[in-house]
């Protein structure tokens, strides 16, 4: 059919291909694209992720003369959350800011792939960048503190949703914020919040009450709740945490999608 | 003869006469401070705000990690907070700023200026010391308020704070100059920060460390900074303050030596 219309050479490649097939092919290409873009960083990133995870798990015991089991349990089940969101939430916005600064951002936007493909590919990269570090951190924690960890099947939705919400929040920050300086500043602020001002690495009861209440409106507390519930027996998976996380993820994805769809 | 030379090249003669000696050095220092200040003016207020907030935030967040903040813990966190606020400026922001200058090419431009490089380095020291102090002070005040700790400030605090700032900034500057690749600098300083925040006995006693790590820290600057600042804020809590002062002085000399070696060398 294509040879009958010589002018249609550019679409020949996609002729006969279903929408889903095309999506899948673009997705595979975009995953490779993201990996190629990160290749200089992949080794550094993996090392940093592992060191930060293991470092936190081991380092926290130095804060105490004898670390209480509860403190060890919270840190050990909180570090995986940080491992999961590091790439999507911390590195992602900075990469986008760099792309905006050096001009490759417009080039990327000019590529003939849909927004959902780009986002899905980036999510995949973030997920696979976070899971190995999470496993190693948990393993080290288990060896060091002899924790009563019990991994339930709920770990799958917990990990998928935590990583997705973190990645989409980072995606929205990167794409919806115009100023790269603002992006950088906000990600650095977020790093601070995640380590010290959200109840991820320590129980909610150790924060001032108002700060805990404030955290209910942000996704980090809920990430910790769903992940912890899948790792410690007896902790109820709170449905509201799943709902809040999903809402955050959808809102951020919509925000990023709108920013990406707007013509400059 | 001389008169005729001066007559032909008055400016040249006058300048070459002036390009050495204490007077010229001081005049260069003043110019460099003005130059650095003018360049920093854009981001300095912002940096001071971030620096102060970070200091205060760190003082608060260490407390969240403990189920109960006992009197001893509160004392350690409060007196460690100003040290923690000081370290990032010398060990992270200064090397990062130099790395940035190298990438932008400003670093080479500054070196090409006709002022002594020692005056250029001194100007950077002054600027960053000024930046460091408000954050440290606020971290201390916030921590003292949050944990309700009563401090007994002694005159020792002044030399302690000055020496800590000097040590952090000279060593940070030495690192920034010794490592020529800006990307490596960034990796090194961020790794250092991780060691400082988690594995250094600044907000907790050194006795909680494994013996080998404690021994390592007796030789590194971080623990010694915490000791001298704590000694200036409390009475009867820390021992062997003199040793820590000596260790910090040695680090300052080493940092200044490294800086001097690099800036005195021709490329």
Question: How would you describe the overall organization of this protein?
Answer:
The complex is a heterodimer of chains A (264) and B (267). Chain A has 264 residues and is an all-alpha fold. Helices cover 74% and strands 0% of the residues of chain A. Chain A has helices at residues 19-59, 69-102, 104-109, 115-145, 155-176, 180-197, 209-215, 219-231, 239-261. In chain A, helix 5 (155-176) packs parallel to helix 9. The longest helix of chain A is centred in the first third of the chain and has 41 residues, at 19-59. Chain B has 267 residues and is mainly alpha-helical. Chain B has 12 helices and no strands. Chain B has helices at residues 2-8, 10-18, 21-40, 44-64, 71-104, 106-112, 117-147, 157-178, 182-199, 211-219, 221-233, 241-263. In chain B, helix 4 crosses helix 7 (117-147). The longest helix of chain B is centred in the N-terminal third of the chain and has 34 residues, at 71-104. The A-B interface holds A 44, 51-52, 55-56, 59-60, 62-65, 68, 70-71, 192, 195-197, 201-203, 206-207 and B 54, 57-58, 60-62, 64-67, 187, 191, 194, 198-199, 201, 203-204, 207-209.
Walk me through the topology:
The complex is a heterodimer of chains A (264) and B (267).
Chain A: H1 19-59, H2 69-102, H3 104-109, H4 115-145, H5 155-176, H6 180-197, H7 209-215, H8 219-231, H9 239-261
Chain B: H1 2-8, H2 10-18, H3 21-40, H4 44-64, H5 71-104, H6 106-112, H7 117-147, H8 157-178, H9 182-199, H10 211-219, H11 221-233, H12 241-263
Helix pairs in contact in B: 1-2, 3-7, 4-5, 4-7, 5-7, 5-8, 5-9, 5-11, 7-8, 8-11, 8-12, 11-12
Distance between the termini of chain B: 37 Å
What's the number of extended β-strand segments of chain A? 0
Q: Most extensive interface: pair and counts? A: A-B, 23 and 21 residues
Annotation field: number of helices of chain B: 12
Q: Report the biggest beta sheet of chain B as strand number plus sense, adding barrel if it closes.
A: none
Biggest β-sheet description of chain A: none
Quaternary organisation of the protein chains: heterodimer
Indicate the percent of residues in helices of chain A: over 70%
* Element-by-element helix/strand order of chain A: HHHHHHHHH
What's the order of the H and E elements of chain B?
HHHHHHHHHHHH
- Low-confidence region ranges of chain B: 1-13
Nearest-integer average pLDDT of chain A = 85
Shape of chain A: globular
């Amino acid at each position: 059919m294509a040879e009958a219309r010589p002018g249609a050479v550019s679409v020949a490649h996609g002729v006969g291909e279903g929408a889903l097939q095309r999506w899948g092919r673009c997705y595979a290409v975009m995953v490779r694209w993201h990996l190629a873009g990160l290749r200089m960083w992949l080794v550094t990133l993996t090392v940093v992720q592992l060191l930060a995870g293991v470092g936190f798990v081991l380092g926290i015991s130095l804060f105490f003369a004898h670390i209480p089991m509860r403190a060890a349990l919270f840190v050990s089940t909180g570090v995986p959350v940080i491992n999961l969101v590091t790439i999507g939430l911390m590195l992602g916005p900075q990469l986008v800011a760099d792309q905006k600064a050096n001009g490759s951002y417009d080039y990327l936007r000019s590529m003939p792939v849909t927004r959902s493909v780009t986002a899905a590919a980036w999510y995949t990269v973030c997920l696979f960048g976070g899971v190995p570090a999470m496993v190693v951190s948990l393993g080290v924690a288990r060896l060091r503190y002899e924790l009563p960890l019990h991994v339930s099947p709920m770990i799958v939705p917990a990990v998928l949703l935590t990583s997705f919400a973190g990645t989409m929040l980072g995606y929205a920050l990167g794409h919806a914020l115009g100023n790269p300086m603002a992006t950088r500043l906000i990600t650095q602020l977020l790093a601070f919040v995640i380590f010290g001002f959200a109840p991820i690495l320590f129980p909610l009861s150790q924060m001032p009450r108002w700060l805990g209440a404030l955290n209910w409106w942000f996704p980090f507390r809920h990430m910790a709740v769903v992940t912890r519930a899948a790792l410690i027996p007896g902790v109820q998976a709170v449905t509201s945490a799943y709902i809040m996380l999903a809402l955050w993820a959808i809102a951020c994805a919509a925000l990023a999608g709108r920013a990406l769809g707007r013509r400059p | 003869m001389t008169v005729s030379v001066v007559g032909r090249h008055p400016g040249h003669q006058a300048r070459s006469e002036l390009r050495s000696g204490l007077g010229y050095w001081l005049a260069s220092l003043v110019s460099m401070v003005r130059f650095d200040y003018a360049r920093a003016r854009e981001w300095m207020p912002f940096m001071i705000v971030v620096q102060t907030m970070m200091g205060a935030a760190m003082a608060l967040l260490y407390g969240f990690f403990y189920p109960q903040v006992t009197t001893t813990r509160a004392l350690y966190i409060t007196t460690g907070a100003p040290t923690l606020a000081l370290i990032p400026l010398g060990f992270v922001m200064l090397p990062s700023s130099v790395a940035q200058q190298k990438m932008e090419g400003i670093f080479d431009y500054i070196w090409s200026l006709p002022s002594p490089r020692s005056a250029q380095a001194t100007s950077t020291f002054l600027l960053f010391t000024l930046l460091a102090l408000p954050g440290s002070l606020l971290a201390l005040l916030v921590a003292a308020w949050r944990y309700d700790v009563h401090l007994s400030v002694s005159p020792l605090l002044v030399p302690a704070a000055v020496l800590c700032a000097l040590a952090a900034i000279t060593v940070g500057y030495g690192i920034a100059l010794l490592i020529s690749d800006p990307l490596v600098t960034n990796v090194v300083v961020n790794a250092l920060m991780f060691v400082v925040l988690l594995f250094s006995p600044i907000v907790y006693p050194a006795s909680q460390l494994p013996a080998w790590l404690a021994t390592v820290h007796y030789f590194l600057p971080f623990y010694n900074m915490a000791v001298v600042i704590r000694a200036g804020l409390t009475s009867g809590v820390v021992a062997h303050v003199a040793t820590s002062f000596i260790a910090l002085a040695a680090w300052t000399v080493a940092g200044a030596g490294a800086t001097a070696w690099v800036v005195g060398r021709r490329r």
